Amino acid sequence: MLHKYFIFILLTVLKITNTQKLPWAYTLYPYGVDFNDTLTARDQDLGSGLIHLPFNISFMGHKYDQIWVQHAGFLSFQPETRFTLNDKWPHPNYPHIDDPIFIAPFYCRIELANDRYLTGEPELDFYRDDDYGRVLWRFVIRPENYIMPPPNSLLHGEEKFRKQAVDMLNMAQDQIRDSVSGAEHFVADYAFVATWGNVTFLGISEQDLRKRPRNSYQVVLVTDKYANLTFAIFNYEKIQWAASTEYGGDSKTGLSTTNAAKIGFNRGNGTEFYQVLPYNDNPKEVIKLHLNSNVDLKGRYIFRIDEWIQPAGCKNDYSNGSLSIWPWFGNMLGGQEVNITGPCFGYHPYKDSDQFIPFEKTYCRWGDDQDSPKTMAEVITILRARCVMPKIFFNGRINLWVSIDGGRTYFWKHEFTIVDPIRSTSKVELIDEEEWFKPLPKSKKLAIKWNRDDLGWSRNETIDVQLFGYYEDDDGPHWDFLQILGDKLVNNGYYEFLVEENWAVDQNRARRYRMGAVAVSLLSGGTEEPKRIWSPLQPLGWWRHNEMEIYWDRQKILLGNSRGSNWMEDQCRWWHEYQRWDRFWMYDLERCPCTIHFAVSDIGRWAPDPECNMDRNFGDTSNCEFHKGAVHCVVNIRPSKSGGGSRCCYNYQGNLMYTNDTRYGSTSDRYHMFGIPPYNTYGRVPALSHYLNDKVPYYLCCEWSDLCDSYLYVRETSDCKGYLYPKTAAIYGDPHVMTFDGKDYTFNARGEFRLLISTRHNFILQGRFERPPNASFALETSGGQINATRMTAIVAREDFSDTIEVRARIFPNQTWRFKCDLFINGRQWYINYTEEKLQFFRNVSIFSPYNDLHMSNLTIMFNTSGAGVQVSCSHGMIHLKFSAPPVMFYETEGLLGYWNNDTSDEFRTPEGVIWSIDSSPITINKEFGMKWRVEQPADSLFTYSGSLAFNKFHDQKENIHTWMQFVPWYTWDEPNFKFPTKLPFSESEMFSVCDGDEQCLYDTKAMGSLEIGESTKHAHRYYKFLHEMQKPVNSCGIYPLKGGIRKTSTGNYLAGSRMTVSCEKSYTFYGYPEYICHWNGTWLPANNVPLHKFNDWPRCEHINIEGIIWSSVGVSSLLVLLFILALGYRIIFQRKKKQGSFKADEKKLSQTIESADEETAQEDGLYFPPNNNNQTEDTDSDSENYYLNRSPGYLQSQRNISDPVEV
């Protein structure tokens, strides 16, 4: 008995000692009853049972609030999940065999039931459990408003557990921040901890429990308040066995030479298994788990798991050279700090101190070319480094390369997106922004503010506030530092300065730099490039004003009417004088869509204007600042041959706004806002070239002076006259099709099909149709089966483009963050942040609405053909809208029909057989639709992962095709398609909601959802409306009438509209006052009077001009009268001369004849008198040269090429 008590006391001391020695840096986070853990039952297969989490866990795109701890070394998120003896995940026989969702730190069965001594003493048995196998779990919650107690405080009960929770969460949070790229600001609010302590394997033959090999490991799931970021931490304290006997392990040692435990993450449903290499199913490596790590603590492995699996730490794996970076996008102007993980940044101790320095310097190269910009990285730890992006004039994706050997080789890379300054989020806010955009602010001070955490967490860091400017010349673009607005400031997030003290002090610089931005730069960073955040672009009028006023005041001598205080007006005049001779670039611009309906449906050629679109918040005062009165603007996605762009804006009536009617109308851009490759040249820089040549003149002429007509004359609206409209086809619901020519039909089939094939640019669009999962509401009517399908994925490409694939997330717990999955050439891609809403890929662009936070709506724009594919993911299915450009007329085949404006031949098979549009639904399905099925894997554009191969979607068997056995419900009212009885709504409610829409009735019955049915109804009506609106329109164009006022009956200039013409004050009207736009695109008088003469056309003449004309007529009449009097006097004089003496000497007669001959010769151009008037010639020459020197052409040739406006 004393012996028992001695053992008990000894174990107690050891237990207390171990508890006191448990620093949080040990491999396993502390566990046991002292840490509020729950012990699972020792039954071999029960596990923990269902655990309801008081928070959400996100895992590989799914969100869960319940979890199961399985004894076999994994966590599952589905009920009834048991261990499956399987050598490969995803399960190769899915869907015939379940493929569960799980997280496996050590997927292998263990022995629990027979792994325990019982002494009869409860206390002693409890401590013996520390030595033998057990499985425990707990969840950890960060208490709100928790105040840490003083050190060495003695805590009990709940207060102790609260302190333990905070300590553990803080420790996990710090290590995650230090080791995972993109987690620098992660806050650990919740955790779930599962521990397998001292467990042995199933099938062990050793009876002495003390000699059994044992493993101790743990998995910790850590997440934030909203489950946006979730991390898994695998901890391995000791690993002594590799496999159970059923996996091929030795019955005594648990070691193996063939198989081993599975370690990784299974997404489930046959999709993807991420294996932790080299340990997964590797008997030689798996027993080293406790000796290695992917962070700085032996036996610990950290992964980000919310959307994708991203391992922490480093590995010098030269087999793939992949990086993890955050963020993966940055402002073109530079200054974005990018955190990098992947390779191990080698360290060695510096002398005897605790400081560490890398073996070699680490460099980042921003691009594939050897001469791409390079920056030196700051190495934070062996796991992480950071580079600051330099200024790069580019728009789109580049490769970010990393060298860890001093720049000799660049092996690791990751794609990085460069975003132009207009689309990039401005992190420096201009307070009272209107004052910043004035040449002479009313306030003596200007102020900015920013989020100080954007530059760093430390409050001791210092910053500079700097001003940068931009200009272009033949050497290319120049983005240069101008001056310091504030130096060595505390990073408190606010700064203001006196305007007069920060005016430009150099006249040449003031004339050269006409636009720029304010930067807040971090001084204490350890990188080669300083970390910077930027304000929006601005025209720098406040900075230039003083020097420009002085300069233009000096020009009075030469220009006469120049006024220094109004230098903006003078600059506008000179800019206009240059620009009005260069309007040829406007001739090859895209014609604007005539109405907003065309603009939103022509999705292949036009994209929403980032600065004015209906997706942005209407309360945002910057929305449509340059186009007031517009509700939506679009820009052509491709620049014209001359590098220009069209910006088309529409008012509340949906009509195109013209600059002839309002200064806020649609405008033409000399340089496209997205830039033109190659970007690093004059006029081609994304955003900057456009701002310099289109926005700065707008401020000069329209905002800072009253010469807006001068600006609008050279930036006038690209008229819709000659616009060629697209044609829309759609697939929606379960699934219903509307062809290009407007024919509706329903097509239910399983497999992959060719939706559209066009020989024009070899365009291909394919769709995948799947059957929904069985549903309980259909048990009585169809045995639970839903005999319908839905489109779940599409893929498209054309000549020289990337392949774009979109899949709908099918299960409800997948759609909490994203509703679509996007793949570019088989690689998954995310569009989440504002900077990513418009992405440029190879010959194709992708746009997501600015207010779409779930990636539920994607528009794919193909640059060569102008085709557009709009995909909307909802309720696990895809709604598709396809916009065919005019070049595809007579060039389409597939399920979307043959576009020729004739519905009679819609159902055309690949062999050319045409089925009647009145054919039965069964005939349409079998004889037309099924003919467009993708027959061979080589013909499919889709990518496949896991066990989801081509034949899984087509159910191909050796002897029979089960897809042929699938018999769908063809119509909503067929006898076999019965209304389910177990629905929360009645049949009468269905009829009320659907309001006679057959597509709605079908989907409501098939899916058992009024919400889905109503969504189908709205989609059907919307697509039919678009189709009806896409009818040929002719535009007469706006009638150019200087000083005129045009009013139309329809608010536009399309065929059928009536236009009334009048004149502004100080103008006199001539011509007919009322006109009608004829169907052939010409204006004709409303009274049908033909216009034969110039005077018949409407015109407005200024009263002053009219006075000048009448004055000219009077002067001309007076001159004619004087001429007549002179002629009469000449005649009378000659008569008197003839009546006088005719006698004259011979010499006088000879002189008279000679003089007459000389006059005649001079009139014929044959006589050249000697040059005796050199002084007069010089004077005339100087006068001519003076006017030549003052002409715009001469000034243009003599000006500094960097200063196209000023002289």
From TrEMBL:
Which part of the chain is the VWFD domain? 727-941
Query: What is one GO cellular-component annotation here?
Result: membrane
**Which segments constitute the AMOP domain?**
564-715
Q: Does the keyword Transmembrane helix apply?
A: yes
Where composition is biased (Polar residues), the residues are: 1184-1201
Renumbered to this chain, the signal peptide range is 1-19
**Presence of keyword Magnesium:** no
Q: Which residues form the Sushi domain?
A: 1034-1102
Q: Tell me the ranges covered by the NIDO domain, including all copies.
A: 125-308
Give its localization: Membrane
Q: Per UniProt, which keywords does this protein have? A: Disulfide bond, Membrane, Signal, Sushi, Transmembrane, Transmembrane helix
Q: Name one GO biological process term.
A: cell-matrix adhesion
Q: Where is this region: Disordered?
A: 1154-1207
Superkingdom classification of source: Eukaryota
Q: What is its main location?
A: membrane
Q: What single Pfam family name could you report for this chain, choosing any that match?
A: NIDO
Question: Which chain regions cross the lipid bilayer?
Answer: 1108-1133
Known PANTHER family for this protein?
MUCIN 4-RELATED (PTHR13802), MUCIN-4 (PTHR13802:SF52)
Q: What is the protein name for this chain?
A: Uncharacterized protein
